[in-house]
Amino acid sequence: MRGNVITLKTVTTDPFIIVSQEDGEGIEAPKVLGDIFESVAGAVFLDSGMDLTKIWGVYYRMMKPYIDHYSVNIPLNPIRRVFEKDDKAVFGTCGDMCACAICVRVRYVRVRHVWR
Q: Where in the sequence is the signal peptide annotated (predicted)?
């Protein structure tokens, strides 16, 4: 833990923990998934008489396998992956022109007779 904030690799059963916005930087989830998540949470919240522990009970049982998996295998957005592989990578905009140059250094890895 950093201060009073839970890191992404920490899971708690306490429904009142607030994770800071910076802990989620670089993690992508489809927008529709977030919309469904919020809709179900809102419905459970209202149906339970605004009881946050009920929401956590419903979501924890439903999401536990995913929480366990993604706590260990955190999905990163492609730009963050590039920066973690090569901190010298530079990204910029093309400005008014659509032409651009892309330089990529590739290292081939052979795994079970398959080239990637």
A: none
Neighbours of 23 (CB within 10 A): 15
35-53: b or e for each residue (b if 16 or more CB lie within 10 Å)?
eeeeeeeeebeeeeeeeee
Percent of the chain scoring above 90 in pLDDT: 5
Q: What is the pLDDT of residues 56-73, one digit of tens each?
A: 888 888 888 888 888 887
Predicted confidence band of residue 46 (pLDDT cuts 50, 70, 90): very high
Cα distances (angstroms) measured from residue 6 to each of 1, 20, 38, 58: 5, 8, 21, 21
